[in-house]
Amino acid sequence: MRSTYRRAGAALLCLAATAGLVSCGGSDSAGGKTTLDYWLWDDKQLPAYKECADAFEKANPDIGVKITQTAWNQYWQNLTTQLASGDAPDVWTNQSTYYPQFATNGQLLDVQPLVDRDKVDLSGYQSGLAEVWVKDGKRYGLPKDWDSMALVYDTAHLEKQGVSAADVADLTWNADDGGTLEQVIAKATVDSKGRNGLDPGFDKKHVKTYGYLPEWKDGSTGQNGWGPLAAANGFTYLDKNPWGTHYNYDDPKLAETLAWFRHIIDKGYAPGFDKQSEVANAELVTAGKGAITIVGSWTISTFTDPKAKDRFAFAPLPAGPEGRKSSLNGLSDAIWAGTEHKEEAWKWVKFLASPECQNKVGARAVVFPALKSGTEQALAAHKAAGRDVKAFTDVAADKNSTFLLPVTEHGTEINPLVQDAVQSVILGQAQPGPAMKGVNDKVNGLFK
Question: Could you tell me the pLDDT band of residue 26, with boundaries at 50, 70 and 90?
Fold first, then answer.
């Protein structure tokens, strides 16, 4: 049986969890049945994993699965707290930039011996996803899904400003004049009197719809914001990835990219950081406050929901001097090293990574599962519904167009350092070059 503290801690989490909560509480064994505690953060994926849990429990009547879903920020806060207290869920959804700290602290179970014992076939996963979860011969999870990035835009708004789907499908970008991306952003920016950003009378102090909504709260990766453009400009995060030990945030290519963002803010084409809403960019775009932004494939359903009334479409990221670049990121399911139910937790993780579960997830078309068969299910579901998601899948299929988000030690320390430095640049409090060199010295100092 779990300790009284375990049950009390789980009860507090139940009170804190969002409305997406299915069930809550610690793993336990009673009446010959083991109940596993499984955590995830995405409410849109919750129904798919409830379906997987039902199928798993039917095949394993001696094991139950309790699923707890909490929002992103609260999720990591709760998980870190529970791990520190030795009172964590048996299995949880892990993210590639977060997991190194857990592996270093000995909080993740090495599943490689179990993979070898049960002869788990890793060849069915999308290329590169399984390798991310390996360090020094130890494997800390099995791949769950993957994501890439693309532009989303308001079709009716851009059409009204004379921008066609063909225009958006083949954008270019550079840090000097912004390429055709900046031209489209300027046309898509409209002030309170209906004048766009190219009109001599455009009033940047009274903007009704911004042409572009940048993201400034995505830590050290810029995944939804500066990252893809910086990569297209020639920036790379690390000396090697994963498990590099020297970051390149002092690269002039990154400084140039941030300077361009400052430029479009100064032009009135994007909101200043100090004026940017706390509301997520996806919600602002659907509310008509912005015309274009970068989104991840996990948000597809937000813009294809019937409530959106076919207002939005996806387009490839703009091609920069080094071509088109998108991060290719993935999740896994991790087992807590301290679980009292290792074999049962492994059965669940192995099932989550199997075609039986991932094909169910794919059929719901909320994310792209890690298994190729699951991705095919998702693509079939999107096609049947008339949704064009090629902007995400085409870039993911091109190895020359994708890059991994950084996987290194000290990730949780690096995140706020870099985010604060980037924000200081965007606020106009610091120049891009000196600010990024200063933070790069601090980041690399962590590895000494």
Answer: very low
Is residue 369 classed as helix, strand or coil in its secondary structure? strand
Contact assessment for residue 114 and residue 248, using Cβ atoms and an 8 Å cutoff = no
d(CA 25, CA 28): 9
Q: Are 232 and 324 in contact (CB under 8 A)?
A: yes
SS (H, E, C) 126-176: CCCCCHHHEECCEECCEEEEEECEEEEEEHHHHHHCCCCHHHHCCCECCCC
Question: Chain-centre distance of CA 394, in angstroms?
Answer: 18
Mean pLDDT, all residues of the chain: 91
Number of C-beta neighbours around residue 243 at 10 A:
14
Per-residue pLDDT tens over the stretch 296-336: 999 999 999 888 878 999 999 999 999 999 999 999 999 99
Are the C-beta atoms of residues 445 and 132 closer than 8 Å to each other? no
Contacts of 148 (CB under 8 A, 6+ apart): 296, 297, 326, 327, 328, 329, 392, 393, 395, 396, 402
